[in-house]
Amino acid sequence: MRRPNKPLPSVEKIKELLDYDPVTGYLIWKETRRFRKKGKHAGCVNNLGYRVICMAGNSTYKAHRLVWKLMTGENPEGTIGHINGN
Hints:
The protein contains two helices and five strands, in the order αβββββα. The chain is α+β, with helices and mostly antiparallel strands and 86 residues long. 15% of the residues are buried.
């Protein structure tokens, strides 16, 4: 059984920390902090192949869910389907 997805940070918080490039699909850090470098791709790819980003009090979020919230302003419900099926 799958765990329910945790609530995402607010759109304002995401925009404070990250820029989104819709051409590449990457989230980019806006400023340098400890292990984060301004202008670099945010997060890393986990063992399941998802890009995950640590932010908002050391919580980890899947990048595609953060992008969904940025684009729609709402938390995604359930699984996000991709147009190409991948």
